[in-house]
From TrEMBL:
This is Protein translocase subunit SecE. It comes from the Bacteria. Pfam families: SecE. Belongs to the SecE/SEC61-gamma family. It comes from Candidatus Yanofskybacteria bacterium RIFCSPHIGHO2_02_FULL_50_12.
Length: 61
């Protein structure tokens, strides 16, 4: 049990050293992640539609 307590104390010390983002930075980073995720989803969706059309037209005839 002593080792768990020591570990938690060390975690607390290390977490105090972390440079946390400001609220403005956090909102901006979140916005970037959401936009990039939406763009990636659209890109992959278009690829899927293209592959589906290729399979339907060339392989399933």
């Amino acid at each position: 049990m002593a080792s768990i307590g020591q570990f938690l104390k060390e975690v607390r010390v290390e977490m105090a050293k972390v440079s946390w983002p400001t609220r403005t930075q956090l909102v901006a980073y979140t916005f970037v992640v959401i936009i990039l995720s939406a763009l990636m989803a659209a890109f992959l969706g278009l690829l899927d539609l293209g592959f589906q059309a290729a399979l339907r037209n060339f392989l399933l005839k």
